[in-house]
Amino acid sequence: MKTTLRQALLPRIAMSLAAAVGVPASAATLSFTASYSGIANVVEIIDSTTPVLRFETFASGMGAFDLGSYRSTDVIDMSTGAGSGSNIFTAGNGDELHGTFSVQVIPTAVANVVALVGQATFAGGTGAFSGASGSASFSGTGVFTSATSAMADLTYAGEIALVPEPGSWLLLSAGMAALLFRRAGRTPAC
I need a labelling partner for 96 at 20 to 30 A (CA). Which of 12, 63, 116, 164 fits? Predict the structure, then answer.
């Protein structure tokens, strides 16, 4: 029984497809920049003596990968200015980039204005950001308009690594397999 090149390659192509679907590729590292403006509200007084406050921030602006909105929850010890929290950047198509951050709140010469500096770490998300990793430093200002509300401006700069989704891998692998299969079926011209 004679085995054709196509018959010999078919099992290898199937194994390659199966491996490609289960194994993520190495991620490409890309520049991450974003700028947002919005409102930060005190949503909980955790300790009134220090005070330690929980803030929620909702903002919009412009970011890499169409990340046009931002929200975060953080806890800040206002006596030291040190805080940490979690954030979500949302793209126009609804995909989300998730992260955590540390922040330092710094008083300024103006009583109701604070400077913000910090570091964000990206840890996955949804859609295109499901395997994301990376980090960005950020800076900004908070202008308190009342005892419990501030206008916030934030600017981010860093790097992010995005891993293609399994569905993208499947599509890419199927295309490669079809190309190889088609090429294997050709006979050389003499």
Answer: 116
